[in-house]
Design brief:
The structure is a single chain. By secondary structure, the protein is mainly alpha-helical. The protein has a domain at 1-100: Arc Repressor Mutant, subunit A (Orthogonal Bundle), CATH 1.10.10. Helix content is 56%, strand content 9%. Helix 1 (16-30) packs across helix 2 (39-50) and helix 7 packs across helix 8.
């Protein structure tokens, strides 16, 4: 999966493959209508956002779904839509439309462009095992008071999976411990320090941060 891949000469710019795979996941995460979740509809949506011809994107979307996202267990066929026109065999079989699996929902939590991530989070944990939703209550609370921090944890988790550093499922935040970067360590240090400050010191700290953020 290439959703975090960047150009070698432009480390902050996502590759075309990364953008396409992210767009597929976004479409499936935010789409309710089966008509919006076929290969053609997804291709047209990405094309309209990119200003290109959708037929030029279709083969890439087809490959991403059939050779990457489905084999990885992130996407699966949800059903088929009947066709009134076209080849007889296709009319009989119908056109497939897709949905994110439980693993795919977890991946979608790492993508900032998805607007309904809190609802996706609730859906993910409602179908998780007891071990996987150990921190559900506090994670849900953190999405309300510190959403950027909370979803950055999922981003780091999924990115570590893409780099082969951990397994995606079963989901356990403890798996991040071995892959924690300096950013997480700094955030942990600050939180522990902040809770030990007096009220006036906390206020001064917040004022300081307001000057730099």
């Amino acid at each position: 999966m290439a959703i975090f891949d960047t150009f070698k000469t432009k480390s902050r710019q996502l590759t075309g493959e990364a953008l396409r795979q992210r767009s597929i996941i976004i479409s499936l995460a935010m789409g309710d209508n089966p008509m919006d979740k076929t290969r053609t509809s997804i291709s047209k949506k990405i094309a309209s956002q990119s200003g290109v011809v959708w037929k030029n994107l279709y083969s890439g979307v087809f490959r991403d779904l059939d050779e990457i996202l489905i084999p990885l267990g992130l996407v699966e066929e949800e059903g088929r839509l009947p066709l009134k026109r076209g080849p007889k065999a296709l009319q009989e079989k119908g056109v497939p439309y897709y949905k994110l699996t439980q693993s795919g929902l977890l991946v979608s939590l790492s993508i900032n462009e998805i607007k309904n991530r809190k609802e996706i989070l609730e859906g993910f944990f409602s179908n998780s095992s007891k071990d996987e939703n150990e921190f559900y209550d506090i994670i849900l609370k953190l999405t309300e008071i510190a959403p950027k921090f909370t979803f950055s944890l999922f981003e780091k988790y999924v990115k570590a999976y893409c780099e082969g550093k951990l397994k995606l499922v079963p989901f356990k935040f403890q798996n991040l411990k071995d892959t924690s970067d300096e950013g997480l360590i700094i955030q942990k240090e600050f939180l522990e320090c902040f809770t030990n400050l007096s009220k006036s010191e906390r206020e001064k700290t917040v004022n300081l941060l307001n000057q730099v953020c």
